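Hello,

I think I submitted the thiamine diphosphate job twice by accident. Can you confirm which output corresponds to this input? Input:
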Amino acid sequence: MKVTGAEVVIQCLKEQGVDTIFGYPGGAILNVYDALYKHEEIHHVLTSHEQGAAHAADGYARATGKVGVCFATSGPGATNLVTGIATAYMDSIPVVAITCNVNVPLLGKDSFQEIDITGITMPITKHNFIVKDVKNLATTIRRAFSIAKTGRPGPVLVDIAKDVTGAEVDYDFIPQKKTTKKDNDILSRVHRVKSDGTKEEIKIESTVISNRELEDAIKLIKAADKPFVFVGGGAILADADKELAEFVEKIDAPVCDSLMGKGAYDGTKENYTGMLGMHGTKASNLGVSECDLLIAIGVRFSDRVMGNPKKFAQNAKILQFDIDPAEINKNIKVDSAVIGDVKVILQEINKKLDTHQHNEWIKHIEEYKEKFPLSYPKVGLSGPYLVEKLYEKTKGEAIIVTEVGQHQMWAAQYYKYKKPHTFLSSGGLGTMGYGLGASIGAQTAKKDTQVVNIAGDGCFRMNMNEIATASREKLPLIQIIVNNHVLGMVRQWQTLFYEKRYSATVLDDGVDYVAIAKAMGAEASRVTTREEYEKALDEALKSKKPYVIDCIINSDDKVWPMVAPGAPISEVFDESDIKNSK
Ligand SMILES: Cc1ncc(C[n+]2csc(CCOP(=O)(O)OP(=O)(O)O)c2C)c(N)n1
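Support: Only one job matched these inputs. Its output is below.
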C-alpha cells in the first residue's frame, strides 16, 4: 500500500504499541501532525515547551519501563529538546525523539529554522539518524525503537526532512520488530578499560554471560565475611527487583542504593541502609567503607557516590554486575565483573549460590542505623517533614518525581520506595526543570497511581508553564513546592564552603506561585504550618485536577548527612559533627 512518509511515522509508532506522544508542532513537522490528526487512538499531549515534552517522554518511560516518545519541529523546536534528551541519556532512559527538518534540497544552506540536530545531539543520544529518503523511513524508526530499548537503554533521535514526510512510499505494517543484527552491532561497539589502563574492544551479546565471570563472582561472594550490596538504576532498567531480593536474602548482606537505584530494593526492609554517597546515610557510607566485598549491581560509580575514588571502599574487593562493559573499570578499578543483563546474572548466581549468614556483620550495620538515624526538627515545616508526611498519607504508594536540589535529596531520603519505577529524578545530568514535565508523562501513563512532583521554588519557576498542560490534560498530579525562597542546594554549599557569600541564590522576589497555579487552571494553596500542610495534602489527594501546594520553609535548612566534594565517604558528617568540632 502506498502512503505518505508522515503516515509511515504514525504507523511505525503504532507498530511499536505507542499510545502517547508528547510534543509541539511547527512548520517542518506539519505533515506528521496532519497524519496524526486522523489517528485518535494515539493521544498527543501538547506541552507548553518542547523541553516539557522531552521530560514528559522520559517520565513516561521511567514510570512504565516502555519507550517514551516526543515530537518537535525543526530549529528551535529541536534545540528545545536538547536538555531533555541529555537528561534521558545520562540516566539511560529509552526515549525516541522525532524531529523534522527542512526539505532535502534546503539542508546545509542555513535555511529558515534549519539546525543540524543530529550533529548537536550526537554526544547525548545512544544513536541518531537523519532520514533523507522515504524508502528508509520505516526501517529507521523501527531501528530507533530497537536501539532505544535494547542493551543499556538510551535516547535515540530521528530527524526527518520535511519533503520525506510528504513523499509516497510502499508500506506494510510490521508489529513490534525484534532487534536486528545491525542494532546489536551498534550496541556492541564499546570499549572496556582494562585494569592496566589500556582499552580493549568488547563484543557484547546481552543474553550470553560468561561462566568464568560467574564462577569468579561466586568465589568472591562465598569468601566474604562482610558483604555489602550497592544497587543502581541498572537494576530497575533490567527489571531485576525480584532476583535482587532473592540474591540479598541468600547472601545475607546489607543493601544501599544510588539515587537512580531507589525502589530496586524494598526501602522498608530491615537490612536496607539508605542511599550511598554525598547525601547518603552514615550507615551506608561507613558500612561500605568497612565492608570486605562490595557487590555493585547496575551502578556506574558516579563521583557523587564515590567521593574520593582513591579512598572508596578501601577495605573491600569490588564485584560489579553491569550490561555495559564500558562501565567496568571506568570510574573505579574493580576486582571482578560479570557483564550482561543483571536480571539474568542474578538468576544464574541465585541458582548456584547456597544461603549464607553474616549475623555479626548485619548486627554491626544495624547498630550504625540505630546510632545515626536520619533526623530533623520535631516542630515546624521542613523538607524532611513534608516528604515523610507525604509518605504516610500516600501509604508509600505514590510515584514521586523530583527536580534538583535539596528537596530532591529529602525526597530520596525520607520517602521509602518499595517498588521500581516509583522514584523519577534526574540523577546524572541534575536537570532543574525536569520534574513537572516528567510527572506529566508519569501521570499520563499511570492514571490510577498518584504522581507527586517535589520541587524547590527555583526549579518550579524554570518550567512551571507546564502546569497549564497538566490542567488541560486534567491530570490529578500534586505539585509540592518546597519553598525556601533561595536556591537552597547552592546556598548550602555557599554556607559550608564559601563563607556565606550568597551570590545570586536569593529568590525572595515575592512571586505568588498560588496565583500563578490558579491562573493556569490548577487548584493551589500556600501552607506555613504542619496543620495547613496536612489539610492541603488531603484536599490535593482528593482533587481531580492538578494541585499545587506552596510550602514555606526556612531558607537555611540543610541536607544532612553530607560528604564534602572529593572527600572520602568515611568522612560523612552532619550538623552535630560540626558543632562538636567547634
Ligand atoms: C538547569 C540547571 N541549572 C542550574 C543548576 C545548578 N543547581 C543545582 S541545585 C540548584 C538550586 C535549586 O534550587 P531550588 O529549586 O530552589 O531547590 P532547593 O535546593 O532549594 O531545594 C541549582 C541552581 C542545575 N542543576 N540545573
